[in-house]
Structure formats: C-alpha cells, structure tokens
C-alpha cells in the first residue's frame, strides 16, 4: 500500500476543520461525524483547543522503582498501572508495524481522522441503527487514553471514556489539532506507551516484560503481532488463557495485515502463523510485600519509606495525593539502608531465626549528621500472610485476632502510627541535655537518696532501682548508674517542660492520649516521670535523637532515602517556606543544642557503656559496662527498663553510627519481658556497631570544654 496521503483525505480535512460537511445530519444519531459541523461553538472550540495543548505535554502514569543503595538492584516497585516509558527508538520496528497493521493501517496517510474510516463506519452504523463500528484512528485512540490518564476527577474520567456523540466529536477535533503539534512518530510512541495490553500491563514495555520477559527492542514479528492484537480486547484475546484459539486467530489476522501492508513477505507471514504462541510470563513486584525473599527484612524499611513519603508536602497536599504520586510518578528511589549495617543488624536481632517469640527485638541504626536510616531489623518475617500466626497475647483481643509473629507488616520499628514502647531511662538524656544547654555543668552534684520526695511534682516520691545508687552523684555517675532520684532532682532544676520540648525538637512525637495530655503546655511542667521514660517512643525516634548528640547537637530529620529522581532523571525537589528549592533526599538538619552541651552529654553517656569519659569519673560501676569491650572503640549510650521490666532498651552511638534496640511485646505491653532478657538490646546494639564498623578506623569523641565540665 502506498504511503502517500490520499487525495480524498487532503480534500476532506479542511472541510472537517471548517465545519462545512452537509447532507448527513439525519445520520447524527447513528454516528457523530455530523457533530463536527457544530464545532464552531466558541466555548467548545476553546475547551478542545486548551485540552489539545495539554496533551502535547501530558505523560502517562509510570511505575516508581525502589533500589538498593547500589542504584541497580530493584527491591520493589509502586504502581497502579505497570508502565515504563520507552522511546520509539528503543522499540522493535516489528511492534511499530504490528500496531499500525492491527489498529490503523492508514495511520501514515490521514491527518488524525481517517475519512475512509469515517465513511465506512457511517455506513455500518446506519445499517445497524446503532454504533457498531468506531473508525477511531491511532491518534484518536491516543487522545482518549491521554484524556483518561490525565483526568483528576471522576467526571473527567467519565467524559474521556463515555460512548457519546459529543465525546467522539471532541476526540476527532483534538486528533486533527494534535497532528499539527506532534509528528507521527511522536504520536505512535505515546500511543504504544499508553495502550493497555491486559495483565496489568500498560504500555509496550510492561507488555513485553509481562508476556515475554523481554524488552520491546527484542520483540519478534510473532510476539509483536500477539501484543498488537491484544489492544482491541485484552481479555478476549488473552494468550495466557489455557485455550489460545482466540489469541492465535487475532495474532494471525495482524500478521496477515502486516503482510498486506508490505511489512512482512507472504512467506514470512505464513511461517509466523504456523508458530504457536510461546509465552514467558513475568509477574512484576508491587509494593513492599513484593520485596524479594533475599531482602525480606528490608520490607520494614520499605514500609517506612511509604509512611515517610505520605508525610512529604513535596509530593502533594495530602496523603492521598502523595501516595498517588508514588504509584504514578515514575520516580527512581534509592534507599539509604547500608547492606553491611543491615546485615549486622539482622544477624544480631536474629531476624531470620528468632521469629517465634511474642517479644519483638528490633533495632534501628541512624547516621549522625544526615539522619539517614542505615538499618532496620526486627525478629519478624515481613509478610501479609498471618494464617499461621498464633492468637494474640493480649487478653483483651478477640479470639480471632492474630499475634504479630512470626509474620507481620506492622511498623514495629517506627515511622508509622504505632505509639512504640515505654523507653525507660533512655529518656534521662533529655533533661541532662536541657540542663547542660541551660548552663549547668557536668559536675553538678547532688546527694541522691534511695527515695526522693519531690516538692515540685506534688509530693511524688520515686526511688532508685538499687540502694547502691545512694550517695553523691554528678552527671557522669548519675547517668552511668541510672540514678532515678538524681535525675528527678536535675529535672526539677531545669524544668520538665524544657526537657519535653527538647525531646520534641529531637524528633519525638506523642501518639497516645496520655502522652499528649502530659506533654501539653499546661501539664508538661508537672510531668516529673518524664525523665524515667514513662512515655512511648519508637526505636527510629530514639536512634535519631541520640544521633543528634553524636553530631554535636545537630539534629537531622530521619530519612529513608539517599536519592529520589524524577522520571526525567532530575532530582525531586521541594520549596522551603523561605522560597529556597531543595532536593527532597538531602539531609534536613538544624542545631538544637550547643555543640559543647552535646559533647558534655556524650562524655557522661560514655559511663553506662564501660568506656572512659574524657573529663570526669563514672563512680566505679555502670549499667552496661560490657559495651565498650564489645564495640572495641569509643562508645556512648544508655540503658532503659520499665516497671517490672515490661520492656527493655539500649541506645548506643559512636561518632559514625547511632543505634536503638528494644525488646517488648507489641501486642500486650503488660506481658513483661523480665530481667533475664534485659541484656538482649544491649547485645544487639553493641554487636551491631562492632560488626558494622569492622575495618574502619576508630574515631574519637570531641571532649567538652572546661567551662561546661565545672
């Protein structure tokens, strides 16, 4: 067939544009061509022209990819429509020719609307007293798909797809206008990236991968004809059905048309038709539950990514818009998880072996100075399948409520809507930091009794865990031994409200009604028990808060990514309140306390770990004196246990990494882990830091100044 535009097309197109067609008004109900005569209406014309211009820049929804830190290993994808935009130059000529043969053999001759096709459809529709034949060109089909894909409201979706004369008329007008703006190659490229081929495959890249496990560049004539035949009716011609009769018949029709158009020789078409349809089906992963088994524990980091993404204004005004962007925006996202650190974390919480316990033992590792999360691991399998999980340990849960082990997707490590776990004496860091930042010194001394009755907190009288803690204490010894009465007294001096506000500046959030009420401006001054860690917190929050101390008081928001690229390869950005454009994946840091106050807090925090502070003495013993020997380098941190050891914590850090580990029953906080398991978080953190930093030179903490030592 000749590729020269027909003379009839050349004569009819200007008539279509001018609205001068006459003599077919009676047939308007049968086919909407006649309605073109009414396109002189200004409102309709302006609306169509506006939408046509939008379609020249509109791009279809595209799959977002999540990568491991190497930027190459795909961990999972997010999509509503599985699609990866592909340039025409990266498609086999076979698929280009097959789609033209199947859907619009006169594509290169018409100008968006095919007069012969319109006439043929007009006759068919008039004879059938209805709309039995469509005459839609590839350009018209693309217009319809683009309007559907760019719709932002249900009404726009309906207008783009409803079977009405007005919709068809607008479609024709837009097709005519679009061909003045885009070349045939551009239209064909966009069409092949928009068409639906069935099996969640939108666009030729997805179709090639799902049906044949290859790229569009490698499609054979037989494969191309099979895919091109699907566009007309993906379910009717589905080659994955057990009976391929309909699919084979449709494929052979396309091969015959390719031969008639000169794309295939008759002999090649005959040989191709004799071949069976050989599929190599692929099921592309979607969402965090599809993370490969090898990276199963990374599912928790993936889940944190989703929750974090849903809070970022850069991706929309609300959660719904942001998640829509994630699933349709075609982003390339690189997680901040470090494989070496993650492997150490998994090993030391037994995430692959110790999944059969109601007590969750988890760990989060954060990078001081950036806030990037380097590891998230817990002794659970990341899975939606809860069928084999036992009944919940919570006596108030119903008999059908499953426990969170061995399988779960609950955000046990933070970043979601779970409140976390009481963090015990790890909270002593906040009043100590507040005191140091307000001008108090490390040498601030108090003769701490076994029990201390507070005059500030309405006679509240907490006691120490041991009588051995009684006596004169400084910040070094008080922190190293975890002396409750010393820290209640210290909190009185600096103000509980100041400690609460500082904790908020370091990233803590109050997620229970009790915590929110106690932390309110009205009640915070009287929240004496705050220093004992009665509030819930997550390991993500605690790791990041302590990371700020390691970074000389510079707090960086927790972030699960090292890079986010738009579909065009540029970094995703946002605009700050001050009008500055910044990359979304860049660290967001601010100075919360002075560097000297943070260094002083670190000096005191070396005492619990068995390390030697630069400027003071620890008082002879500490609560986790094995840590320094295990880590093998300067280390600081703090233990934490709650009443009856319902949960136990350890948060530790070096200049390079900060890690927080807990053990608790997420289903039932009253199910005490017991003193015998309180060493588990200590071991998890110290061994993870040791393994993660193996081979790196040991860095020293910067000592505090003379002025703050006192």
Alpha-beta classification: alpha+beta
- Give the CA-based shape: elongated
Strand content: 5-15%
Mean pLDDT across every amino acid position: 90
What is the first-to-last residue Cα distance? 95 Å
Overall radius of gyration: 33 Å
Helix percent reads 25-40%
Strand arrangement across the biggest beta sheet: 5-4-19-18-17
Low-confidence stretches: 1-43, 128-133
Number of helices: 25
Secondary structure elements and pairings:
Blueprint: H1 7-18, H2 42-55, E1 64-67, E2 74-78, H3 93-103, H4 115-128, H5 138-150, H6 154-161, H7 165-181, H8 184-194, H9 204-212, H10 221-230, H11 245-260, H12 266-273, H13 298-309, H14 319-328, E3 332-335, H15 339-349, E4 360-366, E5 373-378, E6 381-382, E7 407-408, E8 421-422, H16 429-437, E9 446-448, E10 471-473, H17 475-481, H18 484-494, H19 496-505, H20 513-519, E11 536-537, H21 539-550, E12 554-556, E13 561-565, E14 573-575, E15 581-583, E16 589-591, H22 595-605, H23 627-631, E17 636-641, E18 648-653, E19 658-664, H24 679-692, H25 706-709
Parallel strand pairs: 1-3, 6-7
Antiparallel strand pairs: 1-2, 3-13, 4-5, 4-19, 8-11, 9-10, 12-16, 14-15, 17-18, 18-19
Summarize the structure in words:
This protein is of the alpha+beta class and 710 residues long. It contains 25 helices and 19 strands. The chain has a five-stranded antiparallel β-sheet, sandwiched between helices. It is elongated, with a radius of gyration of 33 Å. The N terminus is likely disordered. Its EC number is 2.4.-.-. Keywords: Carboxypeptidase, Glycosyltransferase, Hydrolase, Membrane, Multifunctional enzyme, Protease, Transferase, Transmembrane, Transmembrane helix. It is an enzyme of class 2 (transferase). It comes from Micromonospora vulcania. One of its GO terms (molecular function) is glycosyltransferase activity.
């Amino acid at each position: 067939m000749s590729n020269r535009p027909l003379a009839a097309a050349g004569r009819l197109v200007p008539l279509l544009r001018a609205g001068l067609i006459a003599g077919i008004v009676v047939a308007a109900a049968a086919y909407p061509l006649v309605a073109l005569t009414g396109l002189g209406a200004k409102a309709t014309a302006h609306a169509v022209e506006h939408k046509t211009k939008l379609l020249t820049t509109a791009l279809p929804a595209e799959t977002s990819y999540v990568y491991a830190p190497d930027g190459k290993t795909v961990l999972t994808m997010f999509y509503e429509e599985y699609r990866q935009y592909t340039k025409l130059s990266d498609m086999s000529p076979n698929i280009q020719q097959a789609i033209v043969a199947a859907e619009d053999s006169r594509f290169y001759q018409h100008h968006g609307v095919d007069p012969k096709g319109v006439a043929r459809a007009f006759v068919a529709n008039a004879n059938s007293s209805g709309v039995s034949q469509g005459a839609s060109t590839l350009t018209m089909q693309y217009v319809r798909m683009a309007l559907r894909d760019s719709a932002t409201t249900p009404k726009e979706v309906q207008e783009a797809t409803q079977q009405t004369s007005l919709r068809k008329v607008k479609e024709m007008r837009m097709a005519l206008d679009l061909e003045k703006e885009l070349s045939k190659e551009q239209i064909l490229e966009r069409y092949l990236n928009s068409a639906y081929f069935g099996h969640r495959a939108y666009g030729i890249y997805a179709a090639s991968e799902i049906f044949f496990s290859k790229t569009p560049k490698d499609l054979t004539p037989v494969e191309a004809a099979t895919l091109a035949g699907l566009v007309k009716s993906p379910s009717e011609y589905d080659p994955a059905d057990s009976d391929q009769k309909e699919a084979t018949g449709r494929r052979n029709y396309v091969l015959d048309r390719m031969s008639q158009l000169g794309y295939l020789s008759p002999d090649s078409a005959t040989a191709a038709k004799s071949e069976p349809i050989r599929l190599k089906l692929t099921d592309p992963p979607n969402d965090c539950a599809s993370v490969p088994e090898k990276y199963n524990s990374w599912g928790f980091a993936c889940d944190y990514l989703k929750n974090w993404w849903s809070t970022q204004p850069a991706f929309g005004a609300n959660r719904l818009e942001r998640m829509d962007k994630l699933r349709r925006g075609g982003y390339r996202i690189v997680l901040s998880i470090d494989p070496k650190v993650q492997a150490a974390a998994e090993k030391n919480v037994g995430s692959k072996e110790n999944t059969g316990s109601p007590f969750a033992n988890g760990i989060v590792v954060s990078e001081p100075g950036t806030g990037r999360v380097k590891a998230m691991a817990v002794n659970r399998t990341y899975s939606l399948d809860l069928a084999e999980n036992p009944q919940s340990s919570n006596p108030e849960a119903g008999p059908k409520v499953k426990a969170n082990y061995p399988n779960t997707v609950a955000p046990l490590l933070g970043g979601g809507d779970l409140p976390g776990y009481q963090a015990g004496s790890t909270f002593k860091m906040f009043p100590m930091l507040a005191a140091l930042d307000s001008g108090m010194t490390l040498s601030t001394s108090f003769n701490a009794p076994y029990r201390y009755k507070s005059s500030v907190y309405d006679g509240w009288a907490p006691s120490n865990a041991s009588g051995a803690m009684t006596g004169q204490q400084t910040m070094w010894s008080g922190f190293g031994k975890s002396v409750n009465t010393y820290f209640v007294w210290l909190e009185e001096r600096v103000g509980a409200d100041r400690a609460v506000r500082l904790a908020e500046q370091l990233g803590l959030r109050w997620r229970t009604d009790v915590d929110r009420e106690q932390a309110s401006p009205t009640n915070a001054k009287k929240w004496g028990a705050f220093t004992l860690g009665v509030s819930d917190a997550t390991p993500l929050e605690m790791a990041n808060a302590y990371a700020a101390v390691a970074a000389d008081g510079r707090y960086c928001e927790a972030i699960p990514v090292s890079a986010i690229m738009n579909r065009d390869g540029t970094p995703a950005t946002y605009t700050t309140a001050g009008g500055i454009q910044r990359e979304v994946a860049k660290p967001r840091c601010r100075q919360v306390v002075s560097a000297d106050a943070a260094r002083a807090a670190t000096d005191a925090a070396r005492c619990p770990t068995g390390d030697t502070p630069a400027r003071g003495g620890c008082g002879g013993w500490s609560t986790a004196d094995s840590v320094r020997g295990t880590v093998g380098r300067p280390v600081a941190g703090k233990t934490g246990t709650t009443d009856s050891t319902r949960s136990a914590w350890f948060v530790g850090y070096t200049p390079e990494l900060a890690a927080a580990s807990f053990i608790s029953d997420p289903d039932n906080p009253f199910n005490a882990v017991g003193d015998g398991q309180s060493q588990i978080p200590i071991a998890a953190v110290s061994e993870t830091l040791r393994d993660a930093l193996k081979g790196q030179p040991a860095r020293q903490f910067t000592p505090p100044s003379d002025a703050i030592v006192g």
